[in-house]
Design brief:
The strands form two sheets. Strands 8-7-6-9-10-11-12 form a seven-stranded parallel β-sheet. Strands 2-1-3-4-5 form a five-stranded parallel β-sheet, with helices on one face. The chain is elongated and about 65 Å long. It is built from ten helices and twelve strands. The longest helix has 19 residues. Helix 5 links the parallel strand 6 and strand 7. The chain folds into two domains: 101 residues, 3-Layer(aba) Sandwich (Rossmann fold), CATH 3.40.50.720; 180 residues, Rossmann fold, CATH 3.40.50.720. Helices cover 30% and strands 17% of the residues. By secondary structure, it is of the alpha/beta class. Bound molecules: glyoxylic acid. The site of glyoxylic acid has 4 residues, from loops.
Amino acid sequence: MPISIVSQGRDLSTWVKALKEKKPDLDVRIYPDDHPRDEITFALAWNHPLGAFTQFPNLQCISSLGAGVDHVLKDPNIPEQVQISRIKDKNLTNDMADFCLAQVLNYMRDLHKYKTAEQTHTWKPLRYKNKAEITIGVMGVGALGSEVARRLSSNGFNVTGWANSAKQLESIKVYAGAEELDSFLETADILICLLPLTQETADILNKDTLGKLPKNAFVINVARGEHLIEQDLIDLIESGHLAGASLDVFREEPLPEKHPFWAHPSIKITPHIASVTNPASAVDQVLENYDRLQNSKPLINLVSRTKGY
Ligand code: GLV
């Protein structure tokens, strides 16, 4: 049974190589190459052209090429019966934890300020806070967020979490639901957003929520650009309420050349690289689902279409 990869703006060669190495006889087809769409029951997707899956009448599963599935779910044309799975991979969670730890240390030890000072040959030691003086709030404690929280906590930071519904994380206080959101925000000196993008979480980083963070708080967004109202962030930095932000994701990617974030001295940009799926390590779970589908067995790493994650 062939599989199809339906994607835009992503180099697929490493995926094709990983699939072929594990299953040399697998027939991998790259959309929109010409091939009979009715043969396809299993597809891999990343940022597919909306509506493309209507051409696949026998599709049964769409496997996201990453941890997020918002790019699949935003397409209203995907038939009810199509199951959607995502990548849950140890490397992906480790990379995210590494990245967040690096961002936190970079911010709290002012490394980016010394980089600027170096350019003007300025020797100016800055006072820094100890880890014990800082609380990091991780918004979203699913597969990625819980690992980030654990990593920061085991590095000596005070860490809290916030989740849509009650969650237990060993030795980390997790606030839950809308009624505990303010208490969570009020103590987060550094806020890390790792929420899934859903209708409920879109625009959740706005002037009201960010305004509840302690003065001089710092924001790290490694989830999706649509979580953040960009102008609200700029306004809160410029009014002196927030110290700055480190952003890896944007409403429009690539970030447009003229976007005000580029030149903002307190906003640090990375190009959506916090944690990128490594096909060689994620391919087994994709092929496992492919085999399960052929054998009518329940699939793994499925997402709830109603919850959106
Ligand atoms: C990256 O953004 C992913 O969803 O894996």
